[in-house]
Amino acid sequence: MKHAVIFLVLFLFVAGCSKKVYVNVTKPAQYNVSDVKRLAVLDFNGPGNAGTNIASEFTNRLWKTQYFKIMERRDLQKILDEHALQMSGIINDSTAVEFGKILGVDALIVGDIVSYEVHDKRGKEKAKEKVWKGDYETDAKGNVIYEKTKSGQAKKKKYVEELVDKEYIQRSGNVSIGFRMVSVETGEIRAGDTKSSTYSRKFFPDKGQLPTPESILNQLSESVIEQFIPLITPYTVTVSKTFEEDNDEVDLGIEYAQKNLWDRAMKIWQDELARNPGNNAALYNMGLAYEVMGDFDQAEEYYNKALDIEPKDLYMEALSNIRRRRIEQQNLEQQLH
Hints:
The chain has helices at 50-65, 73-82, 96-103, 213-232, 248-258, 262-275, 280-292, 296-309, 313-336, and strands at 8-15, 18-27, 38-41, 69-70, 107-136, 146-149, 152-155, 157-183, 189-203, 235-242.
């Protein structure tokens, strides 16, 4: 279900000497499919049960966004059974309209598994390892040192570090999936793409266990599906903004902002600007505060004032970003209403 999304939600963090604010920004989907209200995900074409599993995971992930009304898998299967149809391999441009009307949805998601594999490669490589060659540790007088063991006292072995050949298994995986959102009304493809995810890790027999091929394929499939979400639904990313430090008053305002006390921070910067209208750091930080609150016009005004005083890259980047965010916000509002 589509609903309003708050532009920015704050959390703060100080990284080293650079004082930053981290903000969650809601961005519009790459494809505007806001007219699609009800959606069904069919089994993808692929090996074994992979297509069914991927469709189920995609359905669950879309449901979590609450952007569409998603047809439940069991309801979908029931209708298919009633019409003696299979879930995969039944949709093309000519059948989408008819089948979508049977399901009562606005669009169908179909797809193909392009790659779905895990393979192992065995090899050897030189590695440092402590080796016991039959000698024991001794004290300054040459007496053998004993140590406690589970079975009692035992001579303490003397190990030396050497380069040895160690066998390993390189387990690699790749999942590549293509999806299409097909309009029930027109049969046109409203959105689609192919995304991939890969895995590769080297394991030594004496150091841990290999993950199963099934777990790797599931992990990669989830990663690919996660890449699909921003294509058709609004999504949230975390971005960082950097404060500009200056005198004690400006820096005090930053401290308040880092405690989420933005009203106090802005009051301090405004007082500083009343005393010194040319303090570009205070002007910039005011712009940042307005951007955090979603007031792009005021943010742009303060960024421009700071830039007029001193043409810093920081200010130019802030201006460019605010103009881009204004366009994104307009697109986002269209998608949410």
